[in-house]
Structures are given as C-alpha cells and as structure tokens.
Amino acid sequence: MVGSNGLCQSFYKGNVSREECCRRGHANRAWTPEDLSSGELFYILAIRQGAPNCQPCQETCEQVKCEEGKRCKMRNGRPKCVCAPRCSSNRPQHKGPLCGTDGRMYRNHCSMLKYNCRHNKKVEIAYFGRCQKSCDNVICTDNKNCVVDQNGMPHCVYCSIHCPPAHSASQMICGADGVTYESFCLLQQATCRKGRTIGSAYHGPCQGHITCQNLTCSDNKKCLVNIKTKRPQCVSCNMDCSDYGALKVCGTDNQTYSSWCKMHQTACQMGVVIETQHAGACGTLGDAFNVDYYDASGINDPSTE
Q: Superkingdom, according to UniProt (predicted)?
C-alpha cells in the first residue's frame, strides 16, 4: 500500500509483474519495479519506512473491487474502500436501540453493522432495547428464551433442543446445581428453561458425600470446591485469556475481574469456585452499564455519508 510519504509500506509478494500484482483490484495495493534482496527489503521497510518508485494499482474507483459491505470512494485523490453496509436490506422490523452480543448498546441495527465493518468484528443482535444485567426486562422475539451466560450477560436463544433417549449410565452428568442429568443434552435443556448457566460438576450421577479428595476429574480438569454448597466441581483450568474480551464481571467473592476468564484463572489458583455475580464492576448495577456505542465509537450515521 502507498503510505502518506509516497512509499510502498507493506510487502505482499516479490518478483511479480505489475499486471499480476494489480490483478485482484484492491483499492490500496501498489507496485514498485525495484528488485530488492531480503536484506535490502528489511532495510527499506524498517529504516527508510517504505520502498521507492511506488505506483498505485488503481487511480480511480472504476476497477476497484471492494469486499461485501464496503464501497469505493475517492479519498485524498486515491480510491479507498469505505464501510457502507446495506442497512435498508438488512434492517429488522424493530427500530431503535439494541444490545449486541458484545454487551454494548447500539443506537440502531445499522450502527452495529457499520461498527462490525470498521473494526472487523462479528457482533450480532442479542436482543432489542437497552442492554440489561438480567433477563428480568429482556423481551425475546421469534419464540426465543432469555438465558444468562457465564459473564452474567442475557442472550435470547432457541430452547427447542431435541434430546435423544439416554441408553447408558455413562452418559449421566452431575450438574453444578447438584441434580443428576441423564445426558449433557438434558443439562442444556435445563439451562435454557432455568435461564441461567448451570454447568457440569463431574461425569456420572451426583453423590452426596463426594469431595475433591475422592473425586477423579477427567480430561486434565482440576477439582474446585464450591464454597456455598461445599460440592466439588471439575473444571478446565488450562485457558488462554487473550481470546476473551475485556468485559468486566463481579465475582461471588465480591471482587471485580477484567474478564470472566481472569476470574476463572483466580478460582483455579485458589482451588474454589468463583461464579459471576453480575456483569460489570462490583457495585455498578444499573443504567451505567448501557453504553451508546454508536456515539462513543465516533461512527457516523451511514445515511449522511
């Protein structure tokens, strides 16, 4: 791509003709006739901040092919693919604010589509209206049920799970609620009906006097003790928190954690079960959780662009 200094600042492929380099019609792709060795390439990109004789592949929008949800516009004399989601064709019947699956409120569906485009995200509609911290005020459509996830965030999901008959005792699972379920599928059904994550404690039927001392966890899981119920629970402690977003949660130990994953890591270190008390920092229940991300992200109304 051509930088503001007029140099080619990103390296895609070497030893190619201009025709081959520019074939795909990318708006920001450029070509240079300079034949550089790997050592020269490193010096030019790292020290000089770009290769000379940089020739943009496209001078106008005429031959530019933008990905879905974008259109070509001229910016500073050069073609550029900018976000332009088809809001009219994707618009739901509901008008007004909605809560995304990232736990943030968007002014409308179009602003969420534009945010996804600009930030390369895949946020979907969790439910319509302002974001909530429980299912109490969430109205689900299309025969969906409200379920709270491990982050304490409500979601509208379909509960019509068909579970085949369980034919073996080996399929039994002891739920974290102390109830024996004949299969994992039936545990999922119960979670949907209850509206809150139940989770599995261990394989097999629940046993009244079992402890972490005489419970063998499978699949490299670690046994933690639930302080409230005194029941053991096998959990996976080998987690990479870099894959989790920075959505704060308040734990049942009244501590604020930067994410559910960080809370889970602390639980594994301490050997006790810490659950989500509610989404957000401890002591911040209420409307402060709602963020109009349409305004906060600086996203413009696509109808005015």
A: Eukaryota
